[in-house]
Records
---
Amino acid sequence: MDISIFQVLGPVMIGPSSSHTAGAARLARICAMIFGEPFWKVTFGLHGSFAHTYKGHGTDTALLAGVLGIREDDERLPQAREIAQARGLEYRFYLKELDNVHENSVMITFYGCNGNQCRVVGSSIGGGEIEICRVNSFETQFRAQAPALMISHYDHKGVISKISGILSDADVNIAMMKLHRRSRGDVAFCLIETDGQVPPSVAENIQKLEDVLNVRNIEIAQ
């Protein structure tokens, strides 16, 4: 069995718990990267252990800090509520039963300044490690251990080939690719993990493809 050193020692962090504090902050920060737009409101649907112990472990503060872009080892983390208020961010925590997820899970809904919304379900799975389970209506398994592209597009012939070609031309190696679709020809969701950071210009070129709806470039430090 492979065991990460982070699962043994835990991450460098502010707060009492690697799962409920550090993991929560990292999870929320990645979720905000997935949305990738300015937002005026965010809600947190807390499931399982998150719902039962969030006040004692500071999970609510950590989640709020994460969506604000504050890292789990940032000394500003305990001041997340004050920072949110200063930025004019509205937020709400509530209890939510989620299906087929880890006990430490949350559904984060972002309300964008341009009217867009995004719902991300994720879990803090121990030692500061996380997993993104769903993005809107699409299932996914993203551990945020490598840089990635999340692409919404129409399920038309040749789209994936064009995306792969743009990455190849930019010398970006694909480590893993997963495709989810509602039905043939409908909207699809493609998750591509890469061996290195994807230059912004590459993501921009993919966004220009006719059948591509949305591209999110998730930059993960390696």
---
Amino acid sequence: MKDKKLILKILVPVVIVMVIVGIWFIKNTPEKEEIADNQSQTGEENTVEEIQGADFTLKVSEQIDFEALAEYGLPVIADYGSDDCIPCKQMAPVLETMNVEFSGRAFIKFADVWKYQDSAGNVPIQLIPTQVLFHADGTPFVPSDELQQEMEFIMYSDRESGEHVFTVHQGGLSEEQFRRILSEMGVE
């Protein structure tokens, strides 16, 4: 009987420590490994080396450098809103889900334009939330006619050259709408 109690006194703390260590390892898995796993499952063309060093964090406090992001060869959806506006609050969980789901395959960014007013200095924002969309090659997204009928997109052109420079969507997006846009951008 004494041997069983001694074994239990030793075994229980050892098991607890093993569980804690296991949880720590699970929670502290490097993001780069997750990105590599996502790519190997999806068969994306970009190699881990090409996107290594890319910042897939959702929230930004500065202007988004779309040219720098285009160098990674991934599409970009940048949402301009605020943590305090009601439609933006409703869309926040969608942004978080899409950022996690498409990390390594697309850049999903969020700029709080009330906290960081300069963050929208390089894009045409009339109201929030507004999403700015770019293809993987850095060109503005052009939706299909079918998608354009379901969701209204605004195309901005340079006044002098007439060149298409921005495509935006004003208002919130659902997860399904995000997926449809990303699918048209070539992300599966």
---
Amino acid sequence: MTWIILLIIIIVLVFGYIALYNGLQRAKVYTDESWSQIDVQLKRRNDLIPNLVETTKGYAKHERETFAQVVKLRNQMISLPADQQEKKMELSNQLSDSLKSIFALAENYPDLKANQEFTKLMEELSNTENKIAYSRQLFNSSAAAYNQKLLTFPSNLVAKIHGMKKIAYLEVPTEEKNAPKVSF
């Protein structure tokens, strides 16, 4: 009789261990999938940038430095290996800042603002920027769920046995956290 009870306890422990391990793996897969959504949106933005630059060039020939910066950052992002997520997000933040300069050009060039192709591209880029922001939020939520499993008992024991590591959150650059200076 004691053998049966011992066998039942062992079976429950094994199935519990398996359930905890699978829960950790599931949380990791969700985090990886949410990063892939960021990658998809970054690629979409990178594909739109050459069209925007070409459309805008004719209107603002003296803004070459702005265009060169956008193209340089885009090319750096494209050439990064997939596993360099932090560097990719850093370049993405810089690229977003550079794109804001191009968006601002429309205010200086009314003909550009009226150009349908430019307007369409700006709308696409704006939508893509929103999707990137949403994807970053999803990634951080997925990472939080995974990290929580790494820290809570009993899944933390399983995580330690398998050497699972905490996933870093994507953070807003310090300069973007500061309120813009406004003068009247």
